[in-house]
Amino acid sequence: MHAKLGYVISTLVAIALLACPAGAFAVEEAKDILIADFEGQTYGDWKVEGDAFGAGPAKGTLQGQMTVRGYLGKALVNTYLGGDGATGTLTSPPLKIERKHINFLIGGGKHPGQTCINLLIGGKCVRTATGYNNSPGGSEALAWQSWDVTDLAGKMATIQIVDKRKGGWGHVNVDQIMQSDKKRQSAAPATPPPAVAASREITIDKRYLHLPVKNGAPGCRVKLVVDGETAREFTIELAEGEPDFWVFADMADFAGKKIRVEVDKMTEGAKGLEAITQADEVPGAAGMYKEKHRQQFHFSSRRGWNNDSNGLVYYKGEYHLYYQHNPYGWKWGNMHWGHAVSDDLVHWKELPIAIYPHRFGDWVFSGSAVVDADNTAGFKTGDEDVIVAAYTSTGRGEAIAYSNDRGRTFADYAGNPVVKHSGRDPKVIWYAPGKHWVMALFDQVGKSRGIALYTSTNLKDWQRTSRIDGYYECPEIFEIALDGKADTTKWVVYGADGKYAVGSFDGKTFAPDGDRQTFHYGNCFYASQTFSNIPADDGRRIQIAWGRIDTPGMPFNQCMLFPVELTLRTTSDGPRMFTMPVREIEKLRGKKHEWKDCSLTFSGRNPLAAIDAELMDISAEIDISASQEKEVGFFVRGTPVSYDVAKQTLTCKGKTAPLKCPGGKLSLRILVDRTSIEIYANDGEVYMPIGVIHPEENRSLEPMNIAKATRLTVWELRSAWE
Ligand code: FRU
User: What's 271's DSSP letter?
Assistant: First the structure.
């Protein structure tokens, strides 16, 4: 391990010059010995056991953790990895005690024997220390502690960092372990200044609180205190002056109550705090969904940020789309489960937030939902079947919550967490042959990433059954008919990037048939999920992915990709997933333009000049054998979507997919929305979702060297928000 940037401790420390009659002589202290500064990519020759330490030192604060302060350089040992549940030890190679003190920086839980650093001699613990636990906030800070080891001089020892704590808050942060003749001891880190720097009381007489946001303003922490209890707590870039946009907090639960709004970084009477108002409508209700970069037939949240689709489930005529949501800012953060419903996958209605964080810092990360028709968990209280959501609680582990009101509100299960491991993103499915539930979890042990599979008969008690190596985040597993034949099914497994394996599954273990295949070739696809509980007479496997598309200048950010139907089809290379948009897009079709058996060459005038549309559904069959040109395709509102006949590749915005066109036939289906172009080539063999902000003034479709089109149909689409 190398020394920290700019941190070279006392080489020749304290050269004391003592004047005495006999003359001057120098007393030289020995140099400090660096035992570990944890700045490398790995732990080097330290031995890692368990899953609390990850593949190498943490680069500061970890996902879901409060800010870690007081470490040196860029990295440290931080066993918050994967939340508080992970355990393990990190042991140094043997070292000789050569100085009077061993100094180190430590923070985290004050749990002797459980979250600690130990000095071992002959396997026996001779010194130990813990962090400070002085929450809130200060608990993550590191400060110097020191062991006097004068009596152990010359002995061989090892240092061991331990996190054995399973239940409740507690992990350990360690950095910069040194041998030194000088003791370094600092006071326990101070609890940060009191959280309340300003506050205001409001009696709730309207549905929503409106809060002003300025992107880039210092993030402050806001607490809404009701009846002496913190009802909501989040960070927000609260605008002191002119806001970029307004967000809202739903006050339905607190009607008539007096609430106190506490802000940690403002002065009493500060503008941002005073500007908070109440209203019965959400901010900007009149112009909602009409914003310049608002997707018109893709879901995006009214305000704030969205990422992964979560809890996709169909129940009694409604498709539920829950999603990773920051209600209070343009960027990722404050993770909640937002919620929208649709009866046709095209028209969405955003409903109140479905799952709020348990407490600040314990965020609601991704997961799934099922209908527990047989009431296996015993949560049923009324006439409706129970919808059970499984999500990652970043402070507790894998958690479940249940809804007896058609997915509107959820109660957290009192026995949470139901699974503790290092990872996240539970996807639950019912395995009918074994009459049990299966949970697929992203699982990370050291450097090894994969999907862990668990089973349960009641959604509460889970047994780990197997692990599939090599997948990252948001696992998915489902059964699917091969070539539409219900009696020949296969199982498909993928992670957040969609790279999938086809194989078989016996309810406990997945056995892949072959290599993993690419699912999409786009620039914005991530963290998809498929619906559970689709009625048998429909039988489709419907997927919605997060569309990683930035929408600068908007009061919202990101969107979902258009729902697609997945099918598994036999090809000459083996079974492959095909992806096509769900047929419900037809509901938005307006003006239709059609050309048949024609040449669409561009000779001075665009042959498709009749099209003047922002939103389009394009379906083309092109005879590429008729083309003399190298590239064939379209300019979609100026963006080329082109097929290279010689190379047999499809390209859009720098993304390229291999695509063969047997018989010289290229089929292209293209959906165009305000910030996207979704391409489905050769009946879904290639799926290429592209994020692009179209030039506003360009509403054209132009052919690119189409010498012969067997058919071209272009529908102008209506907005789903109309
Ligand atoms: C994937 C992901 C998930 C996590 C969530 C947090 O995009 O990182 O693994 O649960 O987002 O928002």
Answer: H
